[in-house]
Design goal:
The complex is a heterodimer. Chain A is an alpha+beta fold. Chain A has two domains: 229 residues, PmbA/TldD superfamily (PmbA/TldD fold), CATH 3.30.2290.10; 234 residues, no CATH class. Helix content of chain A is 21%, strand content 39%. Chain A contains eleven helices and 24 strands. In chain A, the strands form five sheets. In chain A, strands 1, 2, 3, 4, 5, 6 and 7 form a seven-stranded mixed β-sheet that branches. In chain A, strands 11-10-9-14-23-20 form a six-stranded mixed β-sheet, with helices on one face. In chain A, strands 8-15-16-18-24 form a five-stranded mixed β-barrel. In chain A, strand 2 and strand 3 form a beta hairpin. In chain A, helix 2 runs parallel beside helix 3 and helix 4 runs parallel beside helix 6. The model of chain A has no long low-confidence stretch (mean pLDDT 95). Chain B is α+β, with helices and mostly antiparallel strands. Chain B has two domains: 225 residues, PmbA/TldD superfamily (PmbA/TldD fold); 224 residues, no CATH class. Helix content of chain B is 22%, strand content 35%. Chain B has ten helices and 22 strands. An eight-stranded mixed β-sheet of chain B has the order 8-22-18-17-16-9-21-19. In chain B, helix 4 runs parallel beside helix 5. Chain B is globular and about 70 Å long. Chain B starts with 5 loop residues before the first helix and ends with a strand. Classes of the chains: A alpha+beta, B alpha+beta. The interface between A and B is large, with 85 and 86 residues. Strand 3 of chain A pairs parallel with strand 2 of chain B.
């Protein structure tokens, strides 16, 4: 028996018979499918600000969401009280979406096959708070030691353990214990009248050891401090269409915004995505192969099973430039007659699952990063980004640089002030003319928002050259 | 569908008593000061798409948070577990954590003399947001979508019409004897139609209405028609060449500039020197026609509260007066750090130290209509959408994706997309050359139509 079962079965006294009867209640007015999602989430956070630890917090959030599907209709209700009568009431509320004779769930559950993606020897949640305090204090000292112009440092460490149990009227039974940890550093540099910011962070489904050995507080502190110092000399970014080179790793947010959201099955089922009806068509140059892979060990965007209890997969979205697949959950896969790719995710038990990305990245190509830079006459080399956004329906997407440089005659020159890059999803990747041999995934900082729901994700690219993209600076 | 409130009625506890008892138990357990917050809420939402119900969601939830002090050390905990065991853990956890954090000379609750709540009925809560029978709630969503789709035969697809209702109650208690609580309600209706051009490209836009009582909610039909108008005008949008022309921001887009101003006067950003307005108090930072007010006391307002997240009464604060920066927005901590007085702007989540929140934060309206402002522009861009997060609050650098309509000789002509609008907020605030008379609250932050000169548009 897994740790999960012991939690929901023992701490909350839930039995397999109860689960069967809750599903029966959910299908009491008919419907095609019902599921229950139990969640128990514990979180800890500690931060340093002005070289002292001003706050530390911890919390518990638990509940159960009940969903009933009837055709394209979804009924949903949740409770933060796991007493049987409260769950039954939620099930009866969700059942109101259907109007028909009662149906019976499949008798007996079949446990979903699952990956083992988080082999942690030192769970962060079990670590003493003083160990986490030590991490943030190290980040503060390290960032300040980097350069005397660093005048402000904030560092924070947050971890959580999310235990879930998903059961479905088709016999679905899945459990998972999902750890997640993230370290962040934010710095301000000041010189004369000018102030600049820098930020860095990372983590994943890792234990506290990761921050002691792999990516240390000093690593993130130096990265944030380095960025803010570089920005002190930044000049105005150019305005207009030009060649753009994206550095490896986090600039993969390009894929997330330009194509990832547009390939989520719900938008395509409803015909509201600029990619609707484009399966089998060219949406990128033949150098581009893009996957969404929820099965990478220890990654922030990885999960053993999705929030509908389906195992995650490695799904090819674009193969040599041709659109191959969508990201699907149970509802869209059933309605579209397409495979469920294990991308049904939700923020919490209070939310209805929908197709979401996991780790979205482009496979490595043949070009050396140096050759890519050398090939550019005048353009922008963008190596770090803040957030991005996309308008699914017209396909226009943006992402904003936090560290970028001019490339002039094949050489990287002056750092540029922050600016936004804008493009059109269905054709942005057709302008990819060079793909580096240096694929990197981001360090584990991404959080994706859709319909008001946030979920952790990952992105990655090798160094890429786009022959044309609009750069939103102010210089003429 | 069962009335929403019913979900919680089975576990009726006096939440004021609960909050006060958590505080006193924390004090007995060794805290030198404590503050508890208890929140309870209900929500209903439905989406109707192409005439059919797509989702129906209804539920309630509650949670509590505790902030405990050990002298000048502080920590916080939260839980959704209201059992004796859950509360015990909440208190024990907060005190254990507080032993670990640092002595901060500025930490602490507000002075007792500052605590209190605005008197009288602030018109924040109406239980009529749930008074519609379930079928009529669904019908509100259906009517909004239908009005949008009926507006033009080219509108054939949709992201749906929606109706939402919610109520919330918040209780705050602290060890200085403060116990306060208030309820708020809201309901909203929206529509998001989609139009497809002959070449297959699509455009989507939306409109919504929001009210504290169903009696003040705009009709679903008016919302649907406005959504259709906003969507249809995007049909055939194209990119333009890079240029420098005046930009006119429609009120929704201008509201995002108010967001930026709010972030720039946020006391946390000021003491951390992470705002381009840090150290500018008393200086002229915007054009002389710009006056920005934060007012948490407006009856029925979407940003109104009787007291802030620390139990200090909300108030009206002049933030920018005729272009001069008059006040930051501060809670107890940031006020102490800056040697100033709290403006009653504490915002309290379940966990962590209080942050800064806006009351009703708005830019005072001008005298001219949006049509007059557009009419003066020979060549310019009317911006109806910003995309992305390209604002750097430390430097003020601003660069965001945009779409809108091209202005030629005072008239809106063709739609524009896939461009960016860039500048620096320090200059943008000084270059606000026109302010419209069309201030309307669709949330707690609001601005009228604004004209800003000197920004760069990047396109082809």
């Amino acid at each position: 028996m897994t740790q999960n079962q012991s939690l929901f079965f023992h701490k909350f006294g839930i039995t397999p018979n109860d689960l069967q009867s809750y599903l029966g209640e959910a299908l009491s007015a008919g419907g095609d499918y019902a599921d229950l999602y139990f969640e128990y989430l514990t979180s800890t956070a500690i931060s340093v600000d002005e070289s002292i630890v001003k706050s530390a917090s911890q919390g518990i959030s638990a509940g159960c969401g009940v969903r009933v599907l009837a055709g394209e209709r979804t009924g949903y209700a949740y409770t933060d009280d796991l007493a049987p009568e409260k769950i039954r009431r939620a099930a009866r509320t969700a059942a109101l979406i259907a109007r028909g004779p009662a149906k019976s769930p499949v008798q007996g559950f079949k446990e979903s096959s699952s990956h083992q993606l988080y082999p942690i020897t030192s769970p962060s949640a079990d670590a003493d708070i003083t160990a986490k305090l030590d991490l943030v204090m190290r980040a503060d000292r390290s960032a300040r030691a980097y350069d005397s112009r660093i005048v402000q440092v904030r560092g924070s460490y947050a971890d959580q353990v999310r235990q879930i149990l998903v059961i479905g009227s088709d016999g679905t039974f899945a459990t998972d214990v999902q750890p997640l940890a993230r370290f962040s550093v934010f710095t301000i540099a000041k010189s004369g009248q000018s102030s600049t910011r820098g930020s860095a962070g990372g983590g994943g489904r890792v234990g506290i050891d990761y921050f002691l050995t792999d990516k240390t507080p000093e690593h993130f502190a130096h990265e944030a401090a380095r960025q803010s110092i570089i920005q002190l000399d930044a000049r105005e970014a150019p305005a207009g269409e030009m060649e753009v080179v994206l550095g490896p790793g986090w600039p993969g947010i390009l894929l997330h915004e330009a194509i990832g959201h547009g390939l989520e099955a719900d938008f395509n089922r409803k015909g509201t995505s600029a990619f609707a009806g484009m399966l089998g068509k060219r949406v990128a140059s033949d150098k581009c192969t893009v996957v969404d892979n929820g099965t990478l060990p220890s990654r922030r965007g990885s999960i053993n099973v999705d929030d509908e209890g389906s195992p995650t997969q490695n799904t090819v979205l674009i193969e040599k430039g041709i659109l191959k697949g969508y990201l699907s959950d149970k509802l869209s896969s059933k309605l579209m007659g397409m495979p469920d790719t294990g991308n049904g995710r939700r923020e919490s038990y209070e939310h209805i699952p929908m197709p979401r990305m996991t780790n979205t990245y482009m496979l490595a190509g043949q070009d050396s990063p140096e050759d890519i830079i050398r090939s550019v006459k005048r353009g922008v080399y963008a190596v770090n980004f803040g957030g991005g956004q996309v308008d699914i329906t017209n396909g226009k997407f943006v992402f904003s640089t936090s560290e970028a440089y001019m490339i002039e005659d094949g050489v990287v020159t002056a750092p540029l002030k922050n600016c936004t890059l804008i493009g059109n999803g269905p054709d942005a990747l057709t302008k990819v003319s060079m793909v580096g041999n240096d694929l990197q995934l981001d360090e584990g900082v991404g959080t994706c928002g859709k319909d008001g729901q946030s979920v952790p994700v990952g992105v990655g690219i090798p160094t890429l050259k786009l022959d044309s993209m609009t750069v939103g600076g102010t210089a003429r | 569908m069962a009335a929403n409130t019913e979900i919680l009625s089975g576990v009726e506890v006096d939440l004021r008593e609960l909050a006060a008892s958590v505080v006193s138990r924390a004090m007995k357990a060794g805290a030198t000061a404590a503050e508890a917050v208890v929140r309870e809420g209900t929500e209903f939402s439905t989406v109707v798409r192409l005439g059919e119900v797509e989702t129906l969601k209804e539920s309630g939830s509650r949670a509590m948070g505790l902030r405990a002090f050990l002298g000048q050390r502080t920590a916080s905990t939260y839980t959704s577990d209201f059992t004796e065991d859950g509360i015990e853990q909440l208190i024990k956890g907060a005190l254990e954590l507080a032993h670990v954090t640092s002595e901060d000379p500025y930490a602490g609750l507000p002075e007792a003399s500052l605590l209190g709540a605005l008197p009288g009925d602030l018109q924040l809560y109406y239980d009529d947001v749930y008074s519609l029978p379930p079928e009529e709630r669904i019908d509100y969503a259906r009517r909004a979508e239908r009005a949008a789709l009926d507006a033009d035969p080219r509108l054939k697809n949709s992201d749906g019409g929606s109706f939402d209702a919610a109520t919330g109650r918040k209780v705050l208690a602290n060890s200085l004897g403060f116990v306060g609580d208030y309820r708020r309600s809201y309901c909203s209706v929206s529509a998001a139609p989609i139009v497809q051009a002959e070449n297959g490209t699509m455009q989507r836009d939306y409109w919504f209405a929001l009210a504290r009582t169903i009696t003040k909610l705009d009709s679903p039909e008016s919302v649907g028609r406005e959504a259709a108008r906003r969507t249809l005008r995007r049909l055939g949008a194209r990119k333009i060449a890079s240029t420098q022309v005046p930009v006119i921001l429609d009120p929704l887009v201008a509201g995002s500039i108010l967001d930026n101003i709010f972030d720039a006067v946020n006391g946390d950003a000021i003491y951390r020197q992470s705002s381009f307005l840090a150290g500018k108090l008393g200086e002229k930072i915007a054009a002389s026609n710009v006056t920005v007010v934060d007012d948490g006391t407006i009856p029925g307002g979407f940003g109104t509260e009787p007291f802030d997240g620390e139990g200090v009464p909300t108030r009206r604060t002049m933030v920018i007066e005729s272009g001069v920066l008059k006040s930051y927005l501060l809670n107890t901590y940031t006020a102490k750090k800056l040697g100033l007085k709290t403006t009653g702007s504490a915002s309290r989540g379940l966990a962590g130290n209080p942050g800064i929140g806006a009351g009703n934060f708005f830019l005072q309206k001008g005298a001219r209509t949006p049509q007059q402002i557009i009419g003066d522009v020979k060549q310019g861009l009317y911006v109806t959408q910003f995309l992305g997060f390209g604002v750097n609050m430390v430097t003020g650098d601003f660069s965001r994706g945009a779409s809108g309509l091209w202005i030629e000789n005072g008239e809106l002509t063709f739609p524009v997309e896939e461009i960016t609008v860039a500048g620096n907020l320090k200059e943008m605030l000084n270059n606000i050359s026109e302010i419209g008379n069309d201030l309307a609250f669709r949330g707690s932050l609001a601005a009228p139509t604004l004209r800003i000169d000197g920004m760069t548009i990047a396109g082809e």
